[in-house]
Amino acid sequence: EREGAKLVLDGRDLRVDASPEGFWLGPTLFDHVTPQMQIYRDEIFGPVLAVVRVATLDEAIALVNAHPYANGTALFTESGGAARRFENEVQVGMVGINVPIPVPVAFYSFGGWKQSLFGDLHVHGVEGVKFYTRTKTVTTRWPHQDTPAGGFHMPTLG
Q1: Which CATH class is domain 6-104?
Q2: Contacts of 110-119 spanning 24+ positions with Cβ under 8 A
Q3: Residue 69: beta bridge partners?
Q4: Which three-class secondary structure state does DSSP give residue 114?
Q5: pLDDT tens-digit profile of 56-65?
């Protein structure tokens, strides 16, 4: 707010009767956020969302790709072509088209790219299996019984 963003929904005064001593933050929405604002430069998570408005699809793609964090982004559009181009060209881990929070179902990896990723793998899906599994690669050759015991030749599959 101090930098000019419009606070559309303020979640600071949320009270939870079951836990009155706790600190709670309800859904919070900032609109008209610009790349110069701290709320844009820092990586923040829900229940806080920031709406950044751009004039063109090229500007949207460049804006997302220039950010040092790359967890997720969303685009709201009626154009299938624009959506397809956006999802293919943005450099983030999760993309939402016409959904505000691009969190996939549990089988798919949850997480971003660039400075939004901790470690080298995500936790869910195929990458989670890779993380929790130790693979073994075995290379063998079973020569025919009539192959000479020694020699200098290149083994073939024939």
Answers
A1: alpha beta
A2: 111/71, 112/69, 112/70, 112/71, 112/72, 113/70, 113/71, 114/67, 114/68, 114/69, 114/70, 115/43, 115/68, 115/69, 115/70, 116/43, 116/69, 116/70, 116/71, 116/92, 117/70, 117/93
A3: 114
A4: strand
A5: 999 999 999 9
